[in-house]
């Protein structure tokens, strides 16, 4: 009888290990942003001859004080806190609901922009970022 319980214990332990491993793998299928309560804002970008313009839709963000804009190497990173957290249910046995509390967007920047001269303005729930392009050439006068 003791042998039976030992076999039962080993089988049960192996099943527990398999289930935990499956849960970890399924959790990895859920995007990191959702697991961390982040939402990617709708974004529209366009270029003019002199600048790159990026528009981000940030509904439920109260003011510019709730927004962070920074450049890390060649990537523009925008984060914003949502005024009121909201939750929704997900049809997934390992990840049943999600509470969103912030926006986050990473945008790779082209080499020809002047990151020292970035301007940003937040109005009516839309963040507008303007990044001037660097001058490509310059005519030099000879004395």
Q: Can you walk me through this structure?
A:
This protein folds into two domains: 1-30; 37-132, Immunoglobulin-like (Sandwich). Helix content is 22%, strand content 41%. The chain is built from two helices and eight strands. Strands 1-6-5-4 form a four-stranded mixed beta sheet. By secondary structure, it is of the alpha+beta class. The mean pLDDT is 86. The protein has helices at 2-29, 32-35, and strands spanning 38-39, 43-47, 51-57, 67-72, 75-89, 97-108, 119-123, 126-132.
Task: Write the topology of this structure.
Elements (H helix, E strand, L loop, with lengths): L1 H28 L2 H4 L2 E2 L3 E5 L3 E7 L9 E6 L2 E15 L7 E12 L10 E5 L2 E7 L11
Parallel strand pairs: 1-6
Antiparallel strand pairs: 2-3, 3-8, 4-5, 5-6, 7-8
CATH architecture of the largest domain: Sandwich
Overall pLDDT metric: 86
Number of helices: 2
The helix/strand order is HHEEEEEEEE
N- to C-terminal distance: 104 Å
- Biggest β-sheet: strands ordered side by side in the sheet: 1-6-5-4
């Amino acid at each position: 009888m003791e042998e039976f319980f030992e076999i039962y214990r080993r089988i049960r332990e192996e099943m527990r290990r398999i289930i935990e491993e499956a849960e970890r793998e399924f959790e990895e299928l859920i995007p990191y942003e959702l697991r961390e309560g982040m939402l990617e804002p709708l974004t529209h970008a366009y270029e003019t001859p002199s600048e790159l313009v990026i528009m981000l839709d940030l509904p439920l963000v109260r003011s510019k004080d709730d927004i962070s804009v920074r450049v890390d190497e060649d990537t523009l990173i925008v984060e914003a806190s949502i005024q009121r957290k909201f939750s929704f249910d997900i049809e997934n046995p390992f990840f049943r609901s999600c509470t969103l509390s912030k926006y986050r967007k990473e945008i790779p920047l082209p080499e020809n922009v002047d990151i020292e001269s970035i301007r940003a303005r937040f109005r009516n729930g839309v963040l507008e970022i303007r990044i001037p392009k660097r001058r490509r050439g310059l005519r030099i006068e000879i004395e």
